[in-house]
Design goal:
Residues 163-300 form the N-acetyltransferase domain. This protein has 300 residues and is of the alpha+beta class. The chain has eight helices and twelve strands.
Length: 300
Amino acid sequence: MTDTVIRALDESDAHLFDAHPDPLNARAAHERTTHRPHWKRVALRDGNVVARGAWWGGPDDEQPVNLNWFDVAEGEVEAGAELLRSAPWQVELELNLPGDWREHPDLAAAAETRFAAARAAGYELLVERFLYRWTPERGLPERPGRLLFTPEADDAVFFDALRRIHAATLDAHALKAIEEGGLDRAAQEELDFFHWCPSPREWWQLAHTPEGELAGIHIPAHNPSGPTIGFIGVLPEHRGRGYAYDLLAECTHFLVEHGAEAVTGATDRGNFPMAANFTRAGFPVVRERINFHPAAEAVS
């Protein structure tokens, strides 16, 4: 077997990225994603593309924030691993898969090849997530009317609420942040992300009970691909009353009232209560996302 050649692309040879099969239909997952040619890399053997990766960031980011398109040909696990190891950016890897990939042996095999390459490159599984997409034919979820929603201009109020919410969370990314830097880090990472989003800061809302107690928060947002359920969080002392659904319904209505023709969302596969709320609100699973992170992050 000849040696693998790793090649960074630019506008002149970006076509090489497309010279690879797409069994997991990654292109459909990235219909609304813009990838920069010079953040794409391929692994070549005998002139043929055997692995490819596209790193991604927002329009103002100077460095990629993740790798969200990664393909590896069957039998080329090491080439895929070398593509990851040799990259100048060691960031989180997102594998966006068809929602039914586990049910089809050919799709499962293709996914497992990518998992094997990631592990061989020193990446560790972080979480598996459901990706949802609401469209108008699903009908808007009913607003229960139990909570009062208001904007809040002070980031410190949201920071405190996020700390309290993450003190008892099922979210894998938040748990990772807590392990590495405590509740303050987890809360700050959330705030930083929503400030990074191009949607207005004025959209963030608090949810109070009729008695005036803060029950939770919801953040309608736009990421670079469009309208999304940014964050849904219920304070621990108000859990067990189904308020997460109230927040999700309100967030969906809010985005539609501000022009959204479709709304995306996501939750960890292990977060059964939130997954049930998405289903109840009319959000079908459209894809699954498997998140890996460089193992070096775990000890940094």
